[in-house]
Each structure stands twice: as structure tokens, then as C-alpha cells.
Structure prediction request, 376 residues.
Amino acid sequence: MRIAIVLNTSWNIYNFRQGLVQSLLQEGHQIIAIAPYDKYSEKLVEMGCEYKPVKLQNKGSNPFKDLQFTWQLFKIFRETSPDIVLQFTIKPNIYGTFAARLLNIPVVNNVCGLGTVFLRKGLTSLVAKLLYKLAFWFPEKVFFQNEEDLKLFVEKRLVDYKITDLVPGSGIDLNKFQPQEKPTKNKEFTFLMIARLLYDKGIMEYVEAANILKNKGIEARFQILGAVEEDANLGVSQKIVEQWVENGIIEYLGTTDDVTQYIAQADCVVLPSYREGTPRSLLEAASMAKPLIATNIAGCKQTIDHGVNGFLCEIKNSYDLAHQMEKMYKLPSEKLQAMGKASRKKVEREFDERFVIKKYLHTIAEIAQKRNIAYA
Prediction:
């Protein structure tokens, strides 16, 4: 089969869907990777994919540009003739479905998270929900990454429950993200937050919690790893980040192609996000046997058994976040190790990427049979 995979960045395909792509290639399928060009686009070609670039405005909602994106996908689908299209993230899910429908190509969508569309009210949110409702009439299957998101879409009648299913996030490669020897906690306890510097990721709560703990005399390091994004006032400006660093509140680590080196050196990974699908950063940290702290909200809470492999905190509450971080800070090395081991076991039990790949292979085979398409 010829299978198209559509995403908002080539980086995303390479880093989060590489296992799926490799499994499909091993099954004998031809893969068409469709995403904006970046330095990872060539890596997709090296993997054995056929690559097709598109222009996509990830942030905001410009009807003209979104229509252009739909037209680009329509032309690529018409040119490459995929037997099935797999799509991830909001705009590919919506506009890719419209484009594929015009050509009668079956679609499988994956709602990776609800993002600002559901967190903030306004015209943009209303339009996005309407577009979801229109687009999700047509997919063969829509995967969700947590039960709360699935339930919300069904309750708001944005999707028919009959075509939905759950997957454990993007899954995690247990061989790539392995525990590394670190027998005791750091002399200066190290907290690490891995996320784009967006307000909805809880960046302000993390910084405020760090300040609270420093004012209490707690000697710890508070690190942030992720890209600064100032678009549409959704993220913290570079100037503010520099002020935090100058004031000694946080350490900003920038971005990296090798997140494992930073996770390995951390004592605890923190994500006080407002809403997630299933956060990749927590899965990576858990797979490397790190204790976690995250908000008790959809997406985050399924990665943590409170008191077993980490702590859950209240959403948008920097004081409770600081309280949970202080609890973690005061744990002896033996307890931290036990929490880390529990994280690894939880990932092995619930979030192995093989679970995700198995569901996709099964779904693709079902669609091939239904549509009378040669499977390979």
C-alpha cells in the first residue's frame, strides 16, 4: 500500500512517529511523508520515505492560508495517489481530511491534544470546533490519546463514537530511552521542565514555584528545555526568559536534538501543563526511570500514579506545584530511585510504542479489506 503521513513538521514525524514509519516500511508499504521542510526532511528520505513539502501556518487561523494548505494537500494526494492517509495534529486532521475526501481516500486521524482551541474561548475556538465537526464526518478512524479528550469530542458531537479508539500517546521507544546509572540525587537537586515556552504549558507556574522554593532557602536547580515561541501572545518572550536567568530563578537550556542527556542528569521532570494529549516529555522521562510531577489534568494524570512514580499538582496553582516539588526535593535517594523504577515499569506496562504501532497496523489492514485494497 501507499500510505501518506501528514504532520505539522518533519521534525515531528522523525522524532515521534519514526517507529510507526519504520514498521510500515518493514511491512512492505510505501510511505509518503508530507510536512513543512526542515532539517529532518532529508532524514525522512534517508529512512526510505518519499517526501513532499507543504507550507503550513501552525499558529493562528488565517482562512486564506488554511485554504491554500488544503489545496496543497489535495494536489499532493492527487499526484501521489495514496491508498490511505494518516494524519496528526489539528490542521492536518481538519484540512487533510477535506482534501482526502474530495479524492475518496480513506483517512485515519490522531487527536494529539486539544491545545488552545479548547482552552480559550472566542471566535477562533468556535470556528475550530465547527471545522472539527465537519471534517470528522469522514475518517475511517479517529484515535485519541486520553479518555477525557475522546469523551469531550463525543459529548460535543464532534465525532461519532463508533469510529473512535484510544492509543497511549505516541508511545515510547523503550530501547532508545533507557535508565542511565545515577545512584544518588544531585548535590543540588535538579528539576527539569521540557516544553515549548507557552503559557498553556504552565511555564509561569513553574517559574513562580521555583521562586517560592528559592525564597524558602531550598537549594535546587530549576531548568527549562524547549523553544521560545512568542507567536500570537501564546508564549513567553525571549526578553522575559533572559530576565529569569539574570535573576537566578531558572536555567534556560535552549533546544536540543538529544533530550536524553538532560533527562539523565535531572532528579525530577516537571510539566504543569493545562491540557495535553499524552505528553511526550513525561513518557521519555518515565522511560529513563525519572520521578515525575505534573498537573492533575487530562493527558498528564495517566502518566503518574500519585505517590508511586511521582506527584500530581493542581492546575494553575504555583503554590501547590511548589509544595509537590518540595516533597520531591526532601525524598531520600532510595525513595527517588524507587519512584524512578516505578516510572519505568509503568511505561513498559502502558506506553510501549509497540502498542500504538499494533493498533495502526490492525486499522490499516481493516481499511484495506473494507476498501478492497492490496495490503502490501
In short: The chain has 15 helices and 13 strands. The chain has a mean pLDDT of 92. The domain at 2-171+352-371 is CATH 3.40.50.2000 (Rossmann fold).
